Amino acid sequence: MRFLIPSYDRADTIQTPRWLVREMGVAAETIQIGVQGEDQLNAYQGSSMIPTGCRFLMNRAHNPAGNRNALMEANDGELCLILDDDIRGLSARNQFLEKIDDPAPHRGTGVRQRLLTAVGFFDLILQWRAVLRSGASMVTINMTDNSGHLARLDYADRFLCATPLVSQVMMLVCSDSIRFDESYDMVEDIELSARMYRDGQWIVRDTGICPRTTNRQMCIGGDHARISGGITHLVMNRSRDQQRICQQYPDIIGPAPSGSMNVRFRPRRRTWSEYETDLKPVPVYFQQSRRGNKK
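The chain above was modelled as a monomer; its predicted structure follows.
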């Protein structure tokens, strides 16, 4: 099992490697960080935010799609968990757990969540491996730390397919049949979702798990450093790629409701239980969360 982290211009604010090693007990040698260019490599190698033993892969990619592709190519045939560089925890919905304690509601919504501990994290990985072995091509999670999404779904709907990829966290066996389109500067994960759906490759979303990420103001870099011109140009680039993807996959991708910065995945979502029914509940090894802060 390998842990791959594409990153750009966040040598001093990267969060994921430290969380994996210090809190989840992951061996640093199994973590590989993808960096774009020699200057970036030098900065990351000298960073105090990255535990000793983590490996680096320098590439000449010009966007996140290329960085992820370089990491997947270097680990072809391996079972990998690919994570964004600003993750500091994973939380789960209380409905998926044996209620061994009574955690506080998250952010005043009344939805009870817990942060995964190390044992729960590795048990979750075993469950995702079972989903992959049952025929899925990739397992992903909810995009945002949104308690409303977690509250609306019943246990029977925990695993959904015919759903778009969330590139923040994704598990797969790396192969040349799954690659991001590097001509997309933004929304490359949505494009891959549409292409995999068209080709009959299933992406399964675990709706009971969502990421805890670092506040954007505290974790500078990434797209904001890569795209010159500030937030205006970033929004323009995203809008351009959204229009393109709707034209390329009109039967799969459509425009979202007015005012949204996203697109809509047209196919009807299905529960993975329609295809695989021998899945077990999420494990009980969780800790109480306090508004997203570490306990």
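The radius of gyration is 18 Å.
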